[in-house]
Amino acid sequence: MRTVHVELRPGLVFRLLEAVAQPRPNHWARVWPTSLAMSRWLLDQPPASLPREAFELGCGMGLVSMTAAHLGLVTHGTDREPLAIALALENAERNGVVGLSTSLLEWSDPITTSTPLLLASDVVYEASSPDVLYALAHGAGLLAPGGVLVMAGPTARAELANTLVDRFRTAGYAHGGSTLQVEWEGHHDEVELHTLRRPEA
Ligand SMILES: C[S@@+](CC[C@H](N)C(=O)[O-])C[C@H]1O[C@@H](n2cnc3c(N)ncnc32)[C@H](O)[C@@H]1O
After folding, report:
1. How far is residue 180 from each of residues 35, 37, 38, measured CA to CA in Å?
2. Number of domains in the chain
């Protein structure tokens, strides 16, 4: 374990536990640059434009969910890794963030809930991910009619994410996109962030 300090903006620093020594694949075990970019994007949104609740897929160490909860959204973070969701909750508690719950979720599992704001930071990197995430968000109805999916990932490996964006656009979702720059641990990363609004039923 180690603690990393993440400054999201002047005066807002989260101290996050990372489980760096986990065996591979350990994607869940660290804070990824995309999560800084998405968190800063959330902080930049006009408060009135955000709904009252949010749901995160693949929350890892919990930074994006913590940011949403910090903004006052009742937030639920999920991941398929039990240690990830435990650490996300621990990180929220260590930083005095309230309003965050977590649970295990593998995306192919059945789901009965829906959300007006679905967050997905750097989660589209397996060949099956576009199909599985589309089936979950759209097919199974995790994203409510009129709700928004905010999805982001590195520009350097955008192909699968773009495939998924095209699926949503074909289904009539309104798409917005922006390119964000982020410095993290001495590296510069470029991140593509997409917003996809589901048509009203
Ligand atoms: C690259 S990490 C990103 C973690 C965090 N969102 C961030 O940006 O720092 C990808 C996360 O997605 C989770 N994940 C990948 N495939 C998944 C699946 N099929 N079901 C649930 N979680 C999954 C991993 O466990 C991991 O925590």
Report:
1. 11, 7, 9
2. 1
Cα 131 to averaged position of ligand 1 atoms, centre (Å): 15
- Residue 161 structural domain: 2-197
Placement of tokens 């995306």 in the chain: 107
Instruction: Dig out the tokens for 167 from the structure.
Output: 């699926």
Q: What is the pTM of this model?
A: 0.97
In this predicted structure, the answer to whether residue 25 has a pLDDT above a threshold of 70 is no
CA distances from residue 26 to 10, 80, 190 in whole angstroms, order as listed: 30, 12, 22
In the reported structure, the alpha carbon of residue 28 is separated from the centroid of ligand 1 by a whole-number distance in angstroms of: 5
CA–CA separation, 156 and 151 (whole Å)? 15
Per-residue pLDDT at 180 exceeds 60? yes
Nearest to 121 by CA among 50, 14, 35, 61: 35
CATH number, domain containing residue 33: 3.40.50.150
